Amino acid sequence: MTEPLRDPLQRCLASLLDAADAADTLGIPTDHVREAHADGARRLGFPSDAYVLALVGGTGVGKSSLLNALAGETVSAASVRRPTTSEPIVWIPAGEAESLRPLLEWLGVEEVREHDADALGTVAILDLPDMDSVASEHRERVETVLPRVDAVAWVTDLEKYGDAVLHDTFLRTWVPRLSRQALIVNKADRLSGDDRRRVRRDLEEDLRRQLSTGYEAAVPVLVTTATPSPDLGELTAWLSDGAAAKAVIRARVGATVVDLARALAHEAGIDPSVPATAFLAEHERAAMIEEVTDAVLRAVDLPGLERQAVAATRARARTRGTGPIGQLTSLVYRFSGRETSVADPEGFLLRWRDRAPLTPAVEALRQALGPPLAAARPRVRPALAAAVEPGALREGLGRAVDRAVAGVEHLEAPTSRWWSLIGFLQTIATAGIALAAAWIVVWILAKPPVDSVSVPVLGHVPIPFATLVVFLAAGYLLARLLGVHAGWLGRRWAGRVRDSVSASVRREVAERGLASLDRLEAARQALWTATASLIRDCVTTGRV
Question: FRET label pair with 99: which of 66, 187, 190, 284, CA 20 to 30 Å apart?
Answer without folding.
Answer: 66
